Amino acid sequence: MTARKIFDEILKARGLDDKSKRESFLNPAYEMKHDPFLLPDMENAVQRLVGAHKIQEQITIYGDYDIDGLTATTLLLDAFQSFGFKHVDAFIPNRFIEGYGMTVEAVERIAATGTKLILTVDCGSLSHEPIARAKELGMDVIVTDHHNVAPEQPPAVAVINPKRLLQDNPNEYENLQLLTDARLYPFLDLPGVGVAFKLVQAMQTRLKGLEPGQEKWLLDLVALGTVCDVVTLVDENRMHVYWGLKVLAKTRRPGLKALMAVSRVVPENVNAKSLGFALGPRMNAAGRLETAQIALDMLTAKDGMIALEKAQQLDIMNTERRAEQDKIYKAAMKQAEAMADDDVLIVSSPDWNHGIVGIVAAKLLEKYKKPTFVLQEMDDESKGSARSYGDFSAADAIRAAEDIITKGGGHKLAAGVTLPTKNIQAFRKRINRYYQDLQLKNQAKLLLPKADTLAEISHVTEELVGLLAALEPYGNGNTQPIIQTDKLEVVHVRKMGADGQHIKLELRSSGSKSMHFIAFNAPEHYFVETGQVISVWYQPDINEWQGRRSVEGYILNITS
Length: 560
Prior knowledge:
CATH 2.40.50.460, alpha/beta, globular, 5-stranded parallel sheet, Diaminopimelate Epimerase, Chain A, domain 1, 5-stranded mixed sheet, 3 domains, inorganic pyrophosphatase (n-terminal core)
């Protein structure tokens, strides 16, 4: 089978057998952008901002401490400067003081600065009380967000959130994409930075200063926030990241240049993986350990030396975050082993930083194949994060325990919760009972990789890897293709790492062609014996070592 034939099979498996669909997916045109005025309240927001521009009111952008919020905040600061707004600043909440989203206390502090208009990014849809307080203090609020919405909107001038359209028109959408030709916004899974970018596009129709086409220079920020917020990389998101990576390769921002330098990312080779595994974790480290203001200062820096200083600071913090994460993970595993009969893992300790527990929850889910909550006990109150998969919604589970928690919410697969420490045991029982009542079947199977195609290793060539690169950027909703190859003989097994936790296999097909496969932190069943015949699910890539190139497979599963 030729490389082109395998590539065509993979496209077909992804619903891209239609020629026009295939072309628009492989080469997404920037012109496919949707009309920003189809988003709820966009007209109201633009009118209010035009009014603020006329009299040069003081505006505060109320951000969030994750990458989506930080990139959206930077994007608006940059765009507003181009539009000629003279009095704009930013407020980034501290995870350990204000916590997530808007708070009344923060709104009161902002009012004291003379602000007349608050513009939220990546938060605000459920902030009824803080927005009502802003109104009492003589401030208007424009919300731009993409999180869950309330049945009744907060008292803001505008609430620009694509999810409002799903709430109002549930039968018009499937998987957050428009099914009909109704005059509605076609794609609802924009991240916070994507919604902020649509606001800028709308403002370009009413204000001078950012000429049509010049907004593309903001796409480096849009790509970074989109990939790191793990929204689906289809439709407008795919287009934004596709072009955003090209902008990032020649970015004008000293901060992003410095961040790529300390992350050892070559600008010309930057891809979605670089954002998710190199740039993103370093930026997030600031908000997890201290304050996300450090990351914002780096993104907005005009001076190269200041940008480099902030980027190096983030690099050091990321190393500290990894060390602390490993310590928490080991301790959490001990607790998890004692809960082998629980369907949902709920572990806690006073020694764990709640800025890091979300990553640990994801690692525990991966290891034990169970939805997981990881909490930090902070005297009388505990706070933490949940990660889930399959048919179990972490957000719905939290709602089922609302009488014994302080607050909580989020998405199906990721959520946060705060509760009295004395209620942790009751919370554990309630969540596990909720899981049992759902009577879910075969959930762990949902975590197994599904192959895009079957192929012999003799057909998995450099040419194929080159063709597959056209499917990038990879991410949620557009994962790197998976190949399944059966009846492979184990020729050689090599353990690697300080504890032998990684593995490298040489596998041979019946046609005597062999190929190397690798897995990091490999599960026990990957440690096969020489001579054994196995099936393997893997993602092919190019390995370059001492000037030699070869195709190597990254193992996702093995069966005998």
